[in-house]
Amino acid sequence: MKLSGTDVDFIIIGENVHTTRVLLKRGKRFLADGDREGVTYNTVDGEPKLLTIPEDAKRGQDYEEGRIKHVKIAVQGAMKGEGAGAEDGMAYIRQLVHNQELAGAAFLDVNVDEISIKLEDQKAAMAWLVKTVQSMTDLPVSVDSSNIEVIEVGLEACDKDRAAPMLNSASLERIDALDLAVRHNARVVVTAAGESGMPDSDGPRVENASRMVDLAMEKGIPAGDLYVDPLIFPISVDGAFGQHSLDAIRAIREKYGPEIHITGGMSNVSFGIPARKIINDVFLILAVEAGADSGIVDPVQSRPDEVFKVDRASASYQLAEDVLMGRDKHCKAYIKAWRKKMLEPLAPAA
Amino acid sequence: MAELSDIANETIREEIEEYVERPEEIERSVELFARARPLMQDIAAAIIEGDDDEVDELTRKALAEDIDALEVMDDGLIAGMGIVGIKFREAFIFVPEVLSCARAMKAGMAHIEPILSASGVEPIGTVIMGTVKGDLHDIGKNLCIMMLRGAGFVVVDLGVDTSEDEFIDAVEEHGAPILGMSALLTTTMPNMGKTIEAFIDADLREDVKILVGGAPVTQEFADDMGADGYGKDALACVALAKDMAAEARA
Fold it and tell me: Which of B94, B100, B189 sits opposite A273 (nearest CB)?
């Protein structure tokens, strides 16, 4: 999608079909009335519905502490194939797919890591979910797992007649994944993770990512099929983390030119601080300006097409930028403004 | 029974009134601060405010006045972190603020630790920490380590991708009563269970309390694996470690 006010063709990898996704019970979408407890949603036809929480999910610790693994519930329900839970689950997945497509997603990332701790269950769920998502959209799938065997099963389930899928992800600790990408003619996310640890600044990020890019190209994967993820860490933990990623993006873009894609899990940056959306929006702008042309994001929430229209002179924008550039020590000014209810959602310039 | 008005420090009074909601925690906090000397309350207030310079200065002042190092640690530093923990749990404060408080705690502990070790008093305890085999994620584990150090623990950080043998060797070498393992992936989470089994095989399971944590980990999973505790975040990890250190000393 073209980002308004820029000449960037931004590639959204929609992250909403993840079994790790969480909604809070104290949030707006949770409903408990009488004997029904669930998550409200609208079907693709606009009909308001409730994804009912099954009894076994209520007994889990997550739920007791107020976190609802809604996508996991939907997938588990839908996989049963029959009964109310199955129908509900299917309708729920369908709207996740549909709404991301409407919001401009180019790939739909699919992750079932938290469906079960059993590898066999993960494989079965991945094969099922890839096929199910493909039955609901023409978009290609991005197959995402921390286990390469699960990725392989997902790629095998991909429809060979549509645009090539994405493999998410390969890195120095998992170089084999590149061969898998070659075999399946898949595009591939290569991350800046090291062989034995995470990079602690921009230098190692560029070094690790470069090794992956060079290896991938040696194996015949064209630059245009590579999506470099510099790794984005929470700014709440260290004020320099934002710049580590941004500097790495700049260096990788400079080194490899316009053809290669640069992406990343953009919302990681705002973990641990309030008013995350403002931080996420500003980081997306900074990342694109540094040279990113893709993001693994929730496109329904983050609306990349709208982001570039915002008024950068607003106090909220400036406060968020200070956080991300490491100028607001311990995010003090930002959190203070939030407490005083002075932070406002970013809005287009008047 | 002590009352809120028995607490001399205004910040502490306000903090308890504003942020502590559970009756048993209000009671415990009021008792603790009401019997603490005003200077200890001031140290706790500086911890809550995340003011490391102030904590540094007040801790030195307290020690210069011949107040016992253990008292400064318990009634000042740790008491302050207790309030911080409650505020974080209830989402009144956020990660960067908790980290400032932990840094302030560290500034105070820098004066306390040498005195305790010179007089042969053990620190609260030693904790071995590491991310399990096959897993390179360390942000959550590092947050736990910062908080544990802030709470006065000596922490041995084994880093990421830690094998069963590395965990066992470290526990033996340091005689550590507590081991904390982290995993961020469902793929690597089972390696926590394997490490626990390795401790059983090495006949060392009884010697160490094992804590686990990480995004995909749950209490149910921790119980299944035979861990002694599960912490859903860094402060839960500290609370568990404190309980276990107390148990180990008993």
Answer: B94
Between A219 and B187, residue with greater pLDDT: A219
Question: Residue B1: pLDDT band by 50, 70, 90 thresholds?
Answer: confident
Q: What angle, rounded to 10 degrees, do the helices at B10-19 and B23-35 form? A: 170
| DSSP sequence for B19-36 | H--SHHHHHHHHHHHHHS
Contacts of residue A119 in chain B, CB cutoff 8 Å? 187
pLDDT at B202 over 80: yes
Parts of chain B belonging to CATH 3.40.50.280: 126-249
Between CA B45 and CA B172 the distance in angstroms is 38
Residue B204 has pLDDT above 80, yes or no: yes
- The answer to whether residue A130 scores a pLDDT higher than 80 is yes
Interface contact A247, partner B, CB < 8 A: no
In chain B, the largest separation of any two C-alpha atoms, in whole Å, equals 56
How far is A125 from chain B, CA to nearest CA, in Å?
14
pLDDT at position B120 over 80: no
Kind plus residue range of the DSSP H or E element containing A256: helix A241-256
Options 3.30.1330.30, 3.40.50.2000, 3.40.50.280, 3.90.280.10; CATH for B126-249 is 3.40.50.280
B136: closest chain A residue by CA: A197
Is the peptide bond between A169 and the residue preceding it cis, with omega within 30 degrees of 0? yes
User: CA A80 to CA A51: how far, in whole Å?
Assistant: 15
For testing the chain A interface, which of B18, B98, B139, B224 should be mutated: the one with the most A CBs within 10 Å? B139
Which pLDDT band, with edges at 50, 70 and 90, does B248 fall under?
confident
Residue A36's SS3 state is strand
Distance CA A60, CA A68 (A): 10
Give ranges for CATH 1.10.1240.10 in chain B: 4-118
Q: Cβ neighbours of residue A229 under 8 Å, at least 6 residues apart? A: A169, A189, A190, A191, A192, A209, A262, A263, A264, A265, A296
Is the ipTM of this structure higher than 0.90? no
Reading the block at residue A175, the tokens are 């170089």
Region at A215 (left for phi over 0; alpha for psi -120 to 50; beta for the rest): alpha
Arithmetic mean of pLDDT, B70-89: 90
- Per-residue pLDDT tens digits for B129-145: 999 998 988 888 988 99
Which residues of chain A neighbour B49 with C-beta distances below 8 Å? none
Residue A340 makes CB contacts below 8 A (sequence gap 6+) with none
Please write the tens of the pLDDT for every residue from A16-73: 999 999 999 988 999 998 888 999 999 999 999 999 999 888 887 788 888 899 999 9
Q: Which CATH architecture has domain B4-118?
A: Orthogonal Bundle (1.10)
